[in-house]
Specification:
Length: 305
């Protein structure tokens, strides 16, 4: 099984250790030519074409919370034009990876509101839950509620993706998991909608859908889904060791808009009436904050604003 973590903890470390940057020091560092970020393609299969995202809701989610996440996923490949910048245009960056476009659609949804495996899960439990939707050309995503503890959650990961063998034996199943950090570690897994645990205590951004935990889940879901389609079996696009790779979005950790630096998410859009921060539009009038994604064409972290 290949397992790939979201590098939100790295962000907190950078925030904690970053020193205020003066204009003069920025000028000095600008004189040093930085090496471009490059994710190497390791010649493995990527997920392309039409891909169903099957959701397993583990624990209690309100109908509103479920609709926010479903609307986000629908926005990625929506045929209905959203105002620019759109979530669909963000997702189209994946077309620049080997093999062309991947189109995602919402597939089956399974509700497990009775916590069938308890409220403390290990990685093997996540795989077991993901395996329930045993279908081809799909990514099975387990979403855990705010009162569910998951092995490594808040300590080393906010979400993860990997693959496991299906019951047929030869076919690999791509899966992902993201947890709701609202009550467990919003300062780690819901930044920048919550003040970080360490580092400069600047005011957090206002969540665009009014739910710090779920809007934080959107950021981490975006991270693991981009990683899933561009590095599904640990031999796609990544930089560094295969056991702890930097992927399409995790390579751009903490960047949401232009001018970002550790502790500052960058320039984003702000709704004048609600004060909510966002950088893409979606279906049903939704707005979301999505992280930057590495673009193979430019070898840069692409931001939407």
């Amino acid at each position: 099984m290949a397992s790939i973590y979201t590098f939100a903890i790295l962000l907190i470390f950078l925030v904690a250790t970053a020193k205020p940057t003066s204009a003069s020091s920025r000028k000095l560092t600008a004189l040093v030519q930085e090496q471009p970020l490059t994710l190497k393609y390791h010649n493995g299969a990527l997920l392309k074409g039409k891909i169903a995202i099957n959701l397993v809701w583990y624990g209690t989610f309100t109908p509103t919370q479920r609709s926010i996440i479903v609307d986000y996923l629908t926005s990625l490949s929506s045929v209905h034009r959203s105002p620019p910048p759109s979530a669909a245009s963000w997702w189209r960056t994946t077309e620049n990876y080997h093999g062309g476009a991947s189109t995602v659609v919402v597939g089956t949804q399974t509700l497990d509101e009775k916590y069938s495996l308890g409220k403390s899960l290990k990685t093997q439990h996540l795989i077991l839950l993901a395996s329930k939707a045993n279908t081809l050309r799909s990514v099975n995503v387990v979403l855990t509620a705010k009162d569910v503890a998951v092995e490594g959650f808040c300590m080393s990961r906010c979400g993860t993706h990997g693959s496991t063998r299906m019951k047929t034996g030869s076919t690999r199943l791509a899966y992902a998991w993201v947890g709701n950090s609202e009550t467990q570690c919003p300062g780690q897994c819901a930044w920048p909608f919550h003040q970080p645990i360490y580092g400069p205590q600047t005011p957090p951004l206002v969540a665009p859908n009014g739910d710090v935990g779920v809007d934080g889940m959107i950021i981490n879901l975006a991270t693991v889904l981009a990683g899933t389609v561009t590095n599904p079996y640990n031999n796609g696009y990544f930089q560094g060791p295969a056991t702890a790779p930097l992927e399409a979005v995790s390579a751009c950790t903490g960047v949401f808009g232009s001018g970002a630096y550790p502790g500052y998410p960058g320039k984003v859009l702000v709704d004048k009436s609600s004060g909510a921060s966002y950088n893409v539009h979606g279906v049903n009038g939704r707005r979301f904050l999505v992280p930057a994604m590495w673009d193979p064409k430019t070898s840069t972290c692409r931001t939407m604003v």
